[in-house]
Design goal:
By secondary structure, the chain is of the alpha/beta class. The protein contains 6 helices and 13 strands. The chain has one domain: 4-Layer Sandwich (Metallo-beta-lactamase, Chain A). The termini are close together.
């Protein structure tokens, strides 16, 4: 497999937060693309997918859209994703599902009531893949692993392998939840070990607790502990709280970098920002 380009199109959690206070890091909700020469894998369809769609409508690459989970901030951009309105455009939808649920939430929201265009009216040649998703993607040239996260309603994180490295994307995960854990810290560390880049939910700071304990998102300090164990080349703090301004995210980033230096680690650490890209 040739090298791939990973790009961030949406880095916020919960709800889009546009405006002058969020313009630097970005106010769109979750969306990351993994682009190869003739195909593109999209992770989540938050509002960030809208700008990605404007770019992809001028290309003829096959599109594979994988959803980490069905919460609104991870599917809300799909009805505005322009390629699905292009006649004959090949789009493969790989929704989140568990043993208890199997539904294609990105299409279900297009029912004529919640959005005026129904799924049946889309012009693209789309297909919803519910079974054997990782094998299906492998056949398309994308090598993925997945892990279940600690998040209300369930969520998957992904590791994408390229010829020259790997990227881990874990958008919604509470590393230290108050109740029973779906996945232990040690399991996350093994899953993330040695990644070229680790993109991990870091929505909260210590001052947000205990009020938001159990809401399914990680405190920055816990993400730094995970990274200390997993030792990625680069850590991107992701899924910023919608109320957090650019100045506050920058302060969070500086504090995280100080903590990394205090540990004696060489890992690069930054707050995720729309438009950032890297090769794997």
């Amino acid at each position: 497999m040739a090298s791939m380009t990973v790009k961030l199109w949406g880095v916020r959690g919960s709800i889009p937060s546009p405006g002058p206070r969020t313009v630097y890091y970005g106010g769109n909700t979750a969306c990351v693309s993994v682009e190869a020469e003739d195909r593109v894998l999209i992770l989540d369809a938050g509002s960030g997918i809208c700008a990605l769609g404007r770019q992809l409508r001028h290309q003829d690459k096959d599109i594979y859209l994988m959803i980490s989970h069905n919460h609104w901030d991870h599917i809300q951009g799909f009805p505005f994703f322009l390629p699905v309105y292009q006649p004959g455009r090949r789009v493969f939808l790989l929704p989140y599902h568990s043993e208890k649920r199997a539904l294609c939430a990105v299409l279900d929201q297009m029912d004529g009531a919640r959005f005026p265009v129904t799924a049946a009216e889309l012009l693209s040649d789309y297909q919803c893949v519910l079974d054997n998703q990782l094998e299906f993607l492998a056949g398309a040239g994308f090598r993925l692993e997945c892990i279940e996260t600690n998040h209300p309603g369930g969520c998957h994180g992904f590791r994408i392998h390229g010829d020259h490295g790997s990227a881990v994307y874990i958008p919604d995960n509470e590393l230290e939840p108050p109740g029973t854990r779906t996945t232990q810290l040690e399991e996350f560390a093994d899953f993330c070990a040695g990644a070229t880049v680790l993109i991990h939910d870091a929505q909260y700071v210590p001052a947000d607790l205990p009020a938001k304990h159990g809401w399914g998102h990680s405190v920055v300090d816990d993400v730094l502990e995970l990274a200390a164990r997993a030792r990625p080349v680069q850590l991107l703090l992701y899924h910023h709280d919608p109320e957090r301004t650019d100045a506050e995210v920058a302060a969070l980033e500086r504090r995280a970098r100080r903590q990394v230096r205090a540990r004696g680690a060489t890992m690069a650490c930054a707050a995720a920002r729309e438009g950032v890209s890297f090769r794997i």
